[in-house]
Specification:
15 helices; 363 residues; 2 domains; three-stranded mixed beta sheet; 3% strand
Length: 363
Amino acid sequence: MQKPDRRSILSVIILTCIALGIRLYASSPGMVESSYTSGIYPYISSFLRRLWGSVPFSAGDILYGFLFVFALWKAAQRVKKLRREKRPALRPKIAWLKTFSFLLLLYIIFNALWGLNYDRKGIHHQMNFQREAYSKEEVVNINNVLLQQVNTCKEALLRQRISYPSTRELFTKADHAFAEAAKKYPFLRYSYPSVKPSLFNFIGNYFGFSGYYNPFTGEAQVNTDVPPFLQPYVTCHEISHQLGYAKENEANFAGYIVATASGDTLFMYSAYFDLFLYANRNLYRTDSVAAKQFLALLHPGVKKDIETLKAYYKKYENPAEPVFRWVYGKYLEANKQPLGMTTYSEVVADVIAWHKEYGQPGG
C-alpha cells in the first residue's frame, strides 16, 4: 500500500485552513454584508454574467453534464483497475486524500463565487424591517389581501386577453421588471442578464424543481416545462439568487417585490398566485376550514390554474422526488436554513412583516 506523499498532505492542510478561514469570516453577517455581498460579489456576479450571458444555451448545465459523465467514467475506470489488481486495496489513503482535497476546493470556490451570501444580513436589513412571529389573525389577513390581488389580476388578464410570452420575451420582461424595481430599491439593480432555459427540464419535472441558480457560471436556469403562469415569478426568483439572495425565502421575497411592482399583469398574477398558495397552506395548518373558504372565493380562472398545476405535479410523480427533496432540504439546513424545504414558504412571514411596516404587500 503506497503512502500519501507530502504534497498531498500539504494540499489538504492548506485547503482546510482556507475553508476554516471562510467559516470564521462567515460568522460575522455584518462583515459579509458590507465587504462581500455589497463589496466584491457584485463584480464577481457581473463578470460571470458577462462571460456566459451571451451564450445561447446554459453553459452551467453543460458543465454539470460533463462532470456527471466524467465521474461515471472515473468510477468505471476504478472498478476495472480494482478487478485487474491482485490486491483489492488500491492506495486507499491517497484516493481519500484526493477526494477530500477536491471537496475542499469545491467548497472554497462555491463560497468565493456565491455561497457566502447565505451568511449575509439579507433583504430585511436592506429594506429596514424585521421578521417576527405572526398570529393566526395576520395569516388570515394576508390570505384575504392576496386573494383580492390574485383575483383582480386574473380578471384583468382575461378581460384584456393577455397571452403568455415566448421564453425570450419572458426573460426580457423580467429584466425590465428589475429595472423598474431598482428605481425604488437600487440594490435590486440587475445588469448583464444571464437567464437561460434549463437543458434538464425533463429531470427537473421528475425531481420537482422549477428553476435553479448555477454559482459556478452565474447563470439562472428556468424550467420552461412548468405551467406558464408560474414562469414569471420563477424567473424573478432565480434572478434574485443572482443578485445575492441565497436563502430561498429571501429570493422568494425579492422576486415578489419585483414582480408585484413591475406593472406587468402577468408578473403580478404569477407572484400573487404563488404567494396565495403559500399563505393558504400556512393557514391550513391551523385552520383548515378558513383555508378552504378562501380557496372557494378564488376566481374560476385561478381555480383552473390550480387544477392545471396539480395535474402537472401528478403527471411527474415518482419515487425519486421525495428523496431529492430530502437531500436538497438537508443542503438548505446546512446553509443557514434550518427549516429545510419549508424555507420557501417562510416568505409568508416576510410579506406579513412588510405589510405591517408599510401598509401593503409588495411596497
